[in-house]
Structure formats: structure tokens, C-alpha cells
Amino acid sequence: MELNYKTAERALQAAKEKALSMNIPVTIAVVDTGGHLIALARLDSVYGVIDFAVKKAKTAVMFGVNSEVMGNIISETGFHGYGMLNSNEGLLTIAGGVVLKNTEGKMIGAIGSSGGSPEQDQEIAEAGAHAIA
């Protein structure tokens, strides 16, 4: 399975349901393996978190790990992490970007959530990822 709009919409819908059940106004973005936006939902969240949701998803897909894992890796590099954070129009290495995998375990994209706490964003994005695994 590759990430098409139908699959992206299924992940997005599951993440939206999770966010609504938590009463958290987030923006959720789904990207393909190239980091290109496929689907987006803005649940009455503030404008600025649109970019954050997309960047969290792009960070996850770019490195093949959830965004907070990449944040831990970069934090250990000290000064040398600066270039990584500012590459590709900027990365966002806090929780909320989750790798999407198909049923065979192959990475097919990523989902990012922004607008809640890092832990809430992570939980919302994971709900989307679990919907297609």
C-alpha cells in the first residue's frame, strides 16, 4: 500500500476524532514520503500551527523516525544540529510528528499534529497512524 488520498483521509479522520474527543483545537497534516502535503484539517486552531503540523510531519518522514526522536538526536549534536534544524525550510523536532507505515511495515508518509501540548499532539498523531497500520 502506498499513501494515497483515501488512506491519508483515513489517518486524518482518526486523528481528528481523537483531537475532538480530547477537546483540543489542533491542525493535523498528512504528508507522503517526499514530504508533500496530501491532507490537512484545521480544527479551529490558530493560524500559526498549520506550519508546525506540516513541519512535524515532514521531519518524521524525512528521517524515518517520529519528530521527538529526531529532536533527541539533534539535541545531542550540540552546535552541529543547527544546520539540520534549518534545512529543508526548517524542521520541528518536538513531539507530534509520527511516521505512517503500511501493513507490511514500510514507511508511506507521516502525520503531524500541532495545537496541543507535545504529549497531546503525539497522542493525536499516533491515533491517525494506528488507523492505517
What would you note in describing this structure?
The structure is a single chain. By secondary structure, the protein is of the alpha+beta class. The protein is 45% helix and 19% strand. It is built from five helices and four strands, in the order αββαααββα. The protein has a four-stranded antiparallel sheet with strand order 2-1-4-3. A hairpin with a 5-residue loop joins β3 and β4 (107-114). α1 packs across α5 (118-130). It is globular, with a radius of gyration of 13 Å. 46% of the residues are buried.
SSE order in H/E notation?
HEEHHHEEH
Number of helical segments with 4 or more residues: 5
The spatial strand order of the largest sheet comes to 2-1-4-3
**Could you give the distance between the termini?**
10 Å
Which residues sit in consecutive blocks of at least 5 with pLDDT less than 50? none
Concise description?
The chain has helices spanning 5-22, 49-63, 67-75, 81-85, 118-130, and strands at 27-32, 37-42, 97-101, 107-114. It contains five helices and four strands.
List keywords for this structure.
4 strands, single chain, alpha+beta
